[in-house]
Specification:
Radius of gyration: 19 Å
Protein name: Outer membrane protein assembly factor BamB
Number of strands: 34
Strand order of the largest sheet: 1-4-3-2-33-34
Helix content: under 10%
Structural class: mainly beta
Mean pLDDT: 87
Distance between the termini: 33 Å
Length: 371
C-alpha cells in the first residue's frame, strides 16, 4: 500500500529538560532525560512523564500510524517508522522534526541505531541504512518480501529477517551479504535476539531457531505448539522466553529444552518482557498478565483490551498501551495497582520506550531484545 504526501504539524506542550546482546545495551549518562515514556498512536507520537502520566509533547502527521515500529533513542533523537512510509528523526526534548526519509511502503520494522547509522526495514521489501544526522541513504538491501521484523547489530554485522523466510546477516558498513539462512516461513514481527555467538528467532511454522551469528549455521531448532510470528525471544540468565498462541515457554537457551510452559486460554499475542522479577505478556483477549518466571504461575492479571500491545517493565512499573480502551497505563509490577492512565485519541498497540529514573533506556522485546 502507498500513502500520499502529508503535512507535518507539531504541537509542543512542554520541553523534556532484557534479553539480547551485551553489545547492544544503552549506557545511562547524565545527559539522558529521566522518567519519560515515548509511545505512538494513530497519527501521533507522544512523550509522557512516566511517573505521573503528564503529557510533555506530541508529534503529529496527517496520515499514518506509529503503532508498529518501535522507536530508538540516541543522543536526544528519536528515530521511528510510520505506516505513511516515512522514517522520522524527532528531537526528543521538543518533539520537533529534524528530518524524514521516504520509503515506498509502510514501515512496521522497529529501528536500530549503531555507529551513526539508522537501520530499519520496510514493507517495500528493502532494508535501509541511513546517516543519523542527515537521513541520507548510505545503502539498501533488497530482500524477497516485506521486512517487518526488526534489526539488531552485533559486532560488524546487522541482522534482520524477511517474510521471504530468510534471516540475513549484512556488513553494517556496506550492506554486503555475509550469509542468509532459510527457514521456510514468514517472520512477521518476530525479531532476532543475540547472546554471545547465538542468534535466536521464531516464525510462523512454530519453530524457534538458534543460529550461529558468525556462520549462519543452525545450532538447533525447537518446534512449539503454534506460530511464533508475533513473539520475539527474550534471553536472560541462560533461559529463553517466548510465546506462541497458546503458551508462554521457558527454555534452556543452550539446548532448546523446555523448562516449563504456561498455558493461556485467551491466546498470547505479544513478546514476553522479562526482567529480574517477572514476565509480562499480553493476550488477544485483552488481558495483561504478570507471571512468576521461576514457576510460570500467574501473579496478577488485568483486562485492558490491550489488542496485542507490548509492555515494558522498569522502576517497579509495567507500562502498556490499552489498545481498544484508548489509554496508556502504568501499573505496579508487584500487585497490578493502577498508578496512572493517559487518554489517547485512538487504539494504541505501539510498544513504549522508557527512559527510567536512572536514565537507562528500556526497550520492549519486540525491538530485537535490546535490554
Amino acid at each position: 500500500m502507498k500513502f500520499n504526501l502529508f503535512i507535518c504539524t507539531i504541537l509542543i506542550i512542554s520541553s523534556i529538560g532484557c534479553s539480547s546482546s551485551d553489545e547492544n545495551n544503552e549506557t545511562p549518562t547524565d545527559n539522558n532525560p529521566k522518567n519519560i515514556m515515548f509511545i505512538g498512536g494513530t497519527n501521533e507520537y507522544y512523550a509522557i512523564n512516566s511517573q505521573n502520566g503528564q503529557l510533555k509533547w506530541v508529534f503529529s502527521v496527517l496520515n499514518g500510524r506509529f503503532q508498529y515500529s518501535t522507536a530508538f533513542y540516541s543522543n536526544n533523537v528519536l528515530y521511528v517508522g510510520c505506516t505513511d512510509s516515512y522514517l522520522y528523526a524527532i528531537d526528543a526534548s521538543k518533539g520537533t522534526l529534524l528530518w524524514k526519509f521516504k520509503t515506498n511502503e509502510a514501515i512496521e520494522s522497529s529501528v536500530y541505531v549503531y555507529n551513526n547509522t539508522v537501520f530499519f526495514g520496510s514493507d517495500d521489501d528493502n532494508f535501509y541504512a541511513l546517516n543519523t544526522a542527515t537521513g541520507e541513504l548510505k545503502w539498501k538491501y533488497t530482500a524477497g518480501f516485506n521486512v517487518s521484523s526488526s534489526p539488531v547489530v552485533s559486532g560488524d554485522i546487522v541482522y534482520f529477517a524477511s517474510d521471504d523466510g530468510y534471516v540475513y546477516a549484512l556488513e553494517q558498513g556496506s550492506g554486503a551479504l555475509k550469509w542468509k539462512y532459510y527457514t521456510g516461513s514468514i517472520f512477521n514481527s518476530s525479531s532476532s535476539s543475540i547472546v554471545g555467538n547465538n542468534l535466536y528467532i521464531g516464525n510462523r511454522n512454530g519453530n524457534i531457531y538458534n543460529i550461529n551469528k558468525n556462520t549462519g549455521q543452525l545450532n538447533w531448532e525447537k518446534q512449539l505448539g503454534s506460530s511464533v510470528e508475533y513473539s520475539s525471544p527474550t534471553i536472560l540468565d541462560g533461559y529463553l522466553y517466548v510465546t506462541d498462541k497458546n503458551a508462554l515457554y521457558k527454555m534452556d537457551a543452550v539446548t532448546g529444552n523446555i523448562i516449563w510452559q504456561s498455558y493461556n486460554s485467551g491466546n498470547y499475542s505479544s513478546s514476553p518482557f522479562v526482567n529480574e522479577n517477572y514476565i509480562t505478556v499480553n493476550s488477544s483477549s485483552g488481558n495483561l498478565t504478570v507471571i512468576d518466571k521461576q514457576t510460570g504461575n500467574t501473579r496478577w492479571q488485568k483486562t485492558i483490551y490491550s489488542n496485542s500491545a507490548e509492555a515494558v517493565s522498569t522502576d517497579g512499573t509495567v507500562f502498556i498501551g490499552g489498545g481498544g480502551s484508548n489509554y496508556v497505563y502504568a501499573f505496579s509490577e508487584n500487585d497490578g495497582t493502577e498508578k496512572w492512565r493517559f487518554p489517547m485519541k485512538a487504539v494504541t498497540t505501539s510498544a513504549p520506550v522508557i527512559i527510567n529514573k536512572d536514565g537507562k533506556v528500556v526497550y520492549p522485546s519486540k525491538s530485537g531484545g535490546r535490554d
